[in-house]
Amino acid sequence: KRRTAEPYKIKAVEPLNILTREERQKALEKSGYNTFLLDSEDVYIDLLTDSGTNAMSDQQWGALMVGDEAYAGSKSWYKLEKAVREVYGYKYVLPTHQGRGAENLLSQLKVKEGDYVPGNMYFTTTRAHQELNGGTFVDVVIDEAHDPDVEVDFKGNVDLNKLKTLIAEVGAESIPYVCVAVTVNMAGGQPVSMDNLRETYDLCQKHGIDVMYDATRCVENAYFIKEREQGYQNMPIKDILLEMFSYSDGCTMSGKKDALVNIGGFLAMNDEELYTRSRELVVVYEGMPSYGGMAGRDMEAMAKGIYESIDDHYIEHRIQQVRYLGEQLMDAGIPMVRPVGGHAVYLDAKAFLDHLDREQYPAQALAAALYLDSGVRAMERGIVSAGRNKETGENNIPKLEMVRLTIPRRVYTNNHMDVVADSVIELYRKRHQIKGLKMDYEPPTLRFFNARFSPK
Ligand SMILES: CC1=C(O)/C(=C\N=C(/Cc2ccccc2)C(=O)O)C(COP(=O)(O)O)=CN1
Questions:
Q1: In 111-186, which ranges are E strands?
Q2: How far, in Å, CA of 328 to CA of 403, rounded?
């Protein structure tokens, strides 16, 4: 099989700072062993997140110059609205500054005190907005999603029995919508199959319950359907995407991932009444329904990014690059979530650092050790990110204790992936020298952003 390369060439570069180990040790201590608190200039290969860190194209940069900054009725808004309607298929669109903006609107519009919001595994900000409005998140993802070693093609699938049980227990009137994430970030960037999307939608329609997608990485999800699901191999990504969205009533979208922009998002739906109510609310939180927390130039860039994201060559390269890193680590016997996800490789820090217990924050310790070893910044996705139970105050103990190596889109080459792989493999060889951490400062909410640690 002939080897392939990036379907783009490089026009501008950002020189990277390469620190000595001593300099990285100092930076690590200054950041309280929390990669969120590292300064970007002290980071060599930044795999903290794929959110907002993606490279824009010359078309998108050029579009910035024609941003229409009119307060109302911006030309740039109509371009963005058109792109969302064409690519996602929804009737109505509200612009927001990023995904959280849409989550805030949706939860305020649809979640009331005492409601239950089922979803295929939690995501931090999504759950936060549901809880802020008095809802309780209920995990209805298939059991396998919580097990790093189980290789399942569509590990993000909804477990229909769990959903039926919840509907029977609490009643459809207590379920404002089902939140279906495509892909599932906290399961390791795992996709949902078209069959499962269809079945979930049919079940919800029977009970008059809306299905709202978290569409943040929906194009990656479409690629996995093309690759793994019977009957989609020869279908262009854009058609798979439209079919996916036909099994939903609306979505929240963080443009900072699959829409290839540094800021931006939207809330979309087919229901006119919900649209009317969201137009009022968007004025309170995001600005006008024709700019929603974005400048005209941002909307221009996102409209272009939405079209670029469904290019079959682009998305194939994107997924293959993540897999290129993942397969090197798998071949080296590194414990990680399988199969490799769409946007990241998730190291299984519990298995990697099997000499540490959970209260020594294995994922946090591994992320710190990785930065010290090679200047690669990763993100803790384990007990620290899971926070505390809002009733009992006890630490939530998620089954998955992960370090996420998140690959931004169109930014790094496979040479960077090789540097990351060598560092992880070297760390694994010396893993029993990695010490656990104690938490010296714990913020009251979303503690992972600002918590500080030191070696225990
Ligand atoms: C599935 C999904 C996401 O992954 C997502 C953001 N992800 C992020 C950014 C992030 C957010 C909170 C804590 C740590 C990192 C990621 O690093 O993975 C949002 C919010 O979107 P927003 O950031 O544009 O507000 C909604 N859904």
A1: 116-119, 136-139, 177-181
A2: 16
pTM for the structure as a whole: 0.97
| Atom 11 of ligand 1, nearest CA residue | 125
Tokens 């860190």 locate to: 53
Residues 230 and 224: their CA atoms lie apart, in Å, by 11
Three-class DSSP labels, 223-238: HHHHHHCCCCCCCCHH
**Active site annotation includes 214:** yes
Nearest CA to ligand 1 atom 4: 185
Ligand 1 proximal residues by C-beta, below 6 Å:
49, 51, 98-100, 123-126, 181, 185, 214, 216, 254, 256, 265
Q: If you search the block for the tokens 């207590």, which residue do you land on?
A: 174
The closest alpha carbon to 120, from 162, 57, 91, belongs to 162
pLDDT tens per residue, range 39-67: 999 999 999 999 999 999 999 999 999 99
Selecting among 39, 71, 82, 357, the annotated active-site residue is: 71
ipTM: 0.99
Q: How far is residue 318's CA from residue 408's CA, in Å, rounded to a whole number?
A: 9
Distance CA 426, CA 17 (A): 22
Ligand 1 atom 23: residue of nearest CA: 99
Q: How far apart are CA 60 and CA 3, in angstroms?
A: 28
